[in-house]
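Page 47, continued from p. 46.
Same chain as before, 449 aa.
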Amino acid sequence: MQLCLLLLSLAVCCVFGLRDFQIRPQLNYTKNEWFWLSLPEDQRIRSVFFFTDYGANKDAAFYYRVYPNSGHLWAIKEYLNDTLQVSVIVETHQKEIFSRTFKISAGEGGTRGTCGVQRVKTTPPRPWSCETLKLPKKFCIQSNSLINDEPCECGERLIFREQFEDESWRNNWRHLEQSQLPSPNYEGVAFVDHPHNLYVKDNALHLQVTPSNYSKSNPFYIQNCTDQTKDKQSCGSKKPNNNFRKFWPPYNSASIKSIATFKYCRIEIEAKMPIGDWLFPVLSLKSDMGRAIRVAIVRGNEQLQDSAGTDIGGKTLFAGAVVYGNKHEAMQHISIGKHFGEDFHNYTAIWKESSITFKVDGRIYAKITDNNILAQLSESMCHIELATTVGGEYNFPDSRILSDQKPFRNQHGSLAGGLRKASKKWKHPKLVIRSIRVYSISDYDDYNI
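Result:
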């Protein structure tokens, strides 16, 4: 069924006809006659209420949006069968209310939409009004979310935001500085605090892998090493030592974690993934005990299969968790026709006590419901952790990837040489983050997903 005429008709007639405030509805269709009806993000919008009338054969539905969904801002998804009537009520921070109703019809000759305009402007109550003292400033939904061990009063609230518009982001993050080469990681990088590996450009954070160039005159040593053991394998040594040359990482990269901690939340990360064999991005909620929710798993390889013949290269998106050193990858995944590093995408994890739901660009693709995993993750608060690494047993396990796909072993001296050889064809050796948002959650999130 064709929907191409609808967007044009809405753009022409469905504009709030007001000089001081205009909203232009947008409609994007998907397969099987589903479509997204959305309002662009606007800082003046406080909340949006959608009411959909399906006709006599189906009960009406309503959706209340307090903050925009990443990927589809102020949006609802509906199935267009015959005719729908959608009413939209927009509340601004200036306490104005705008309402709009449109009828969306489907037919063999295309789709058409009609709309009407109505504006209702409210006035704020007087400061001494009893109602001012009794009523909350915003509709509040109960939440069990925590930030920095403190409970969030209401669900569906933005509790953390980072957009990397300037250098102020550094006040909210800490560097991880250590080698990832020793057991159990077997990753070919040292995480360092260096501007070549971590920088802001074009309002985005770049975490980039670079050759380390460690040598006898420049031995591997991290002065502010964050490894708890402080051993030479992880932190290096000022004095050259041939016995430790095998522990010199072939690459440097960057890893940071948020100072703020969270428990039970919705995290949305807009990111562009690295492209290149054995590159791996880290987008996680991770506790100090090492337990982690892996918001997105995208391997840098453009072509890669596991021992079962499953495509696990960069065209396929996975998610999972790490508990007690054991990795758990969700059974479900999603594939697209090109590497996820070719474009920016919005990656979401909704962490609830009873489940963890994973989404990309507003679409659910995986879920964790294992009670043992959920219970272990729920024992502690989690930081946001971001990094770009190379190789690794957690990311490219020897037991899963056969030697015809990976011509080196993680726990063998060939690791560094194998990674150096692959790097000659790296296309995009960095993780780029445009924005991070964390929201408190509520039972209402069941309807958002």
